[in-house]
Amino acid sequence: MMQNVHLAPETDEDDLYSGYNDYNPTYDTEELENDTAFQQAVRTSHGRRPPITAKIPSTAVTRPVATGYGSKTSLASSMGRPMTGAIQDGVTRPMTAVRAAGFTKAALRGSAFDPLGQSRGPAPPLEAKNEDSPEEKIRQLEKKVNELVEESCIANSCGDLKLALEKAKDAGRKERILVRQREQVTTPENINLDLTYSVLLNLASQYSANEMYAEALTTFQVIVKNKMFSNAGRLKVNMGNIYLKQRNYSKAIKFYRMALDQIPSVHKEMRIKIMQNIGVTFIKTGQYSDAINSFEHIMSMAPNLKAGFNLILSYFAVGDRDKMKKAFQKLIAVPLEIDEDDKYISPSDDPHTNLVIEAIKNDRLRQMERERKAMAEKYIMTAAKLIAPVIETSFAVGYDWCVEVVKASQYVELANDLEINKAITYLRQKDFNQAVETLKMFEKKDSRVKSAAATNLSFLYYLENEFAQASSYADLAVNSDRYNPSALTNKGNTVFANGDYEKAAEFYKEALRNDSSCTEALYNIGELYDSEGDKSQAFQYYYESYRYFPSNIEVIEWLGAYYIDTQFCEKAIQYFERASLIQPTQVKWQLMVASCFRRSGNYQKALDTYKDIHRKFPENVECLRFLVRLCTDIGLKEVQEYATKLKRLEKMKEIREQRIKSGRDGSGGPRSRREGSASSDSGQNCSASSKGERLSAKLRALPGTNEPYESSSNKEIDASYVDPLGPQIERPKTAAKKRIDEDDFADEELGDDLLPE
């Protein structure tokens, strides 16, 4: 069977894989550099010949051959294509490219592959600026002007108004230089009007901030009258603000109205603010009807708290009860546009949510919301206190109406504060029973209101010397709100009245820990240390009390007397000068100032002060005595004039005393009995001082009138001070202490509300 099997010989058949390594040498680009024919073709015109196109008959033309005689003979191209630039049928063939795009001979001479051109080295340096060119000088000067304007604004925001004005003036000077230089180089159309506008506006604003109103108005007029400045008419609002500050109300209204006419109706908010300024100006001029029209329009278009409050004041001024009620309801209905407090309470235990709520609980937005709410409550409470006594037959009925309106609004928590304010009004009218009855209604209310009411009840019972009841309500106030400084102060006062001074000091200190500005607690604890003889500790607390409340005349007197006692008369001068400002009709404070100058050796200043006192109080004998003494020692000729005046006044004083004495002798026994009764009352006061109702500080007196001013006397005076401040009436809203003083109407709330300049 194997005989018929024949193996194929290896040489008879072609190899299946043969030919794969064979290639046409024409495509061997690696040997092109060594190919003599190719290199020759590249270097000569042989390689630039066009491809063969003999198959297209229409392109086969002849070309002329130049001869020595200038004649040309047509010669057909060997390639069958007309030569470049040849003329065919009278038409010249266009020239074609000789080389391919991007082809360079250098690429064929062994250069390395460098697509990024790194072999060419770094780029040449930039051309240096010519700083002496006019364009560059203008550019630098413009930059400097902008910097000065910015520095002026920063200085103004920091409170340095003088520096801000200097920078603004410097910017104005440089801007004028810039305009002149630009006019020399370019056409006037290329002047930077925006820069000129900003420089002038900043300069006018700085003049106004420095109260240089004439210069500010002149600068604003330059801007307003320039037609090239667009929307410059709005600056008439700023001019109206200046006239309002100058109390030129007619011009202020005129400019506000001119600005209002030039502002389109789409700018609703700005128009509302200008109308509010117009209304406030009408109130200042007493034109309440016109003011009412302005505020009524605002409340119908875009109601806000200030306009609503000013509308109530305007109706109060004209005495329209019904309109006052309607305006109060409009004020209550003004939307606050703030988030509810529930937003800041975490609904779950999610740590991420709690972290976010903690972050936004006291951020700037939350603070702004609190301020807005506090302002709304202030306006509502002030308006209610203002209109309650006049809208009904009695103030109690008026308060009840306000309370009912508030309860039906979003300010329901203010209803309790109004009730407490009603009790305070009863106190002002000396109706203590009604005040007590009103306050006792709050014993079952929430802790904040209960604490406020109990504080006021403690105050009332303390005034009536019912210390047991005062202590009981003070305990209730403290237990309801341990962080109420007024309640702690009242509790300290009740303990002080019982003679437990150490425990009283603890309550005063706790009140100060809760509120470091509690001047009542500071004063009381300073008085406590003074009564125990600890002058240094008493001085510390008196000084702190003065720092927080520099108008308390008792504190000022104690501090002045303390410095005199410690032989630092120069430091006592500032306190007595402040006392003379608070009580300008009391000659004793000015005499103390002059005495301090005299004791410190500044005789000329003392003499000038005594002369000034004599001009204000020509019948003061004490002042004339010191004038005579000082003029005698210094050797002035005026001594005779003052001596004559002194003798005349002393003689008049003797005659007056004799008349009084003769009148007493004629009156007989009843007068004596009354004097005896008065002396016995005085004795009771002295004995009461041991109970803590009155304290006295024994300080060294100033020299008497019959003693030389160089000497220092050991005579003591009784500088008596009122005992610890009694418990203070609670402020209805903030649960802080409140004195019983005159009602404080909100005329000062008629803020100008000037637009920002």
TrEMBL record:
Placement of TPR repeats on the sequence: 233-266, 272-305, 485-518, 519-552, 553-586
Record keywords: Cell projection, Cilium, Cilium biogenesis/degradation, Cytoplasm, Cytoskeleton, Flagellum, Repeat, TPR repeat
Main location: other
Segments of skewed composition (Basic and acidic residues): 730-741
GO cellular component: centriole; centrosome; ciliary basal body; ciliary tip; cytosol; intraciliary transport particle B; motile cilium
Subcellular location: Cell projection, Cilium, Flagellum; Cytoplasm, Cytoskeleton, Cilium basal body; Cytoplasm, Cytoskeleton, Microtubule organizing center, Centrosome, Centriole
KW Repeat (keyword) present: yes
Stretches the record annotates as Disordered: 1-28, 112-136, 657-757
InterPro entries: TPR-like_helical_dom_sf (IPR011990), TPR_rpt (IPR019734)
Record flagged with keyword Cytoplasm: yes
Positions with biased composition (Acidic residues): 742-757
Coiled-coil ranges from the UniProt annotation: none
GO biological process: cell projection organization; regulation of cilium assembly
Oligomer and partners: Component of the IFT complex B, at least composed of IFT20, IFT22, IFT25, IFT27, IFT46, IFT52, TRAF3IP1/IFT54, IFT57, IFT74, IFT80, IFT81, and IFT88. Interacts with IFT20, IFT22, IFT25, IFT27, IFT52, TRAF3IP1, IFT74, IFT80 and IFT81. Interacts with IFT172. Interacts with IFT57. Interacts with IFT46. Interacts with IFT70B. Interacts with C2CD3. Interacts with ENTR1 (via N-terminus). Interacts with LRRC56. Interacts with DZIP1. Interacts with CCDC38. Interacts with CCDC146. Interacts with CFAP53.
Name of the protein in question: Intraflagellar transport protein 88 homolog
The species this protein was found in: Canis lupus familiaris
Gene that encodes the chain: IFT88
